[in-house]
Amino acid sequence: EYRGQTVQNPWFGQYKDTKGHVFVNHGRKYYTNFQQLLNWHHLFAEKHDIEIMVGHEYYSTRTTALRADRKVTFDPHIGELANAVVAGEDHTSYTAKYNTEGFFGRALYNYMERYFGEASFRYDATSRFQAEPKDNRWGKFWSVSGGWLLNKESWFKKLEANWVDEIKLKASYGEQGNDQIDPFQYMTTYG
């Protein structure tokens, strides 16, 4: 929540010609984030460690703004629009909305804390993209990875490399999206 008031004096400076100037602005932002997560973890035969997580997330913001100015003030100490008689050039208001929604999952596996695998998948939507055709709002993003802790292998221990605490070989690949663009890029607008 923000509210600002400014009064410029009518006697000297850049606002002398306007015989005083009043500026008022107000802004408000609402943020909402809902997450639902389910986790499952189990160790089989002291060797196979499996962890699975699935979830849903909804994120929403709503921003409202109002701003106006007036000239020719009655009293240089009152920061309200009613204190001036001539409408200024900067008066506007707007409301902006932004929403995302996603469904996601992740599976982790490791064998004796030596070999590791992970896979993840997200199905996300954003209000920044056009609604028609319907597929434009939703995107599918995935990743896979694997790892191998070499220092846990018996052949590595025979090397007697005591100066190595941990050495891991890793590989991964994935896809991701980005909606950090200005809103309404998919349509012609007027300003």
Q: What do these coordinates show?
A:
The chain has one helix spanning 154-157; strands at residues 2-8, 21-44, 48-73, 84-87, 92-111, 115-126, 138-149, 168-174. A hairpin with a 3-residue loop joins β5 (92-111) and β6 (115-126). It has 1 helix and 8 strands. The longest helix has 4 residues, at 154-157. The protein is mostly beta strands and 191 residues long. Strands 1, 2, 3, 4, 5, 6, 7 and 8 form an 8-stranded antiparallel β-sheet that branches. The model has no long low-confidence stretch (mean pLDDT 91). The chain starts with a strand and ends in a 17-residue tail after the last strand. The protein is 2% helix and 59% strand.
Shape by Cα distribution: elongated
Oligomeric state of the chains in view = single chain
The whole-angstrom Rg is: 29 Å
Number of helices: 1
What are the secondary-structure elements, in order, as H or E?
EEEEEEEHE
Terminal CA distance reads 26 Å
Biggest β-sheet description:
8 strands, antiparallel
Average pLDDT figure? 91
Give the tally of β-strands: 8
Could you say which structural class the secondary elements and strand pairing correspond to? mainly beta
Unreliable stretches covering 5 or more consecutive residues: none
The amount of helix comes to under 10%
Strand percent estimate: over 45%
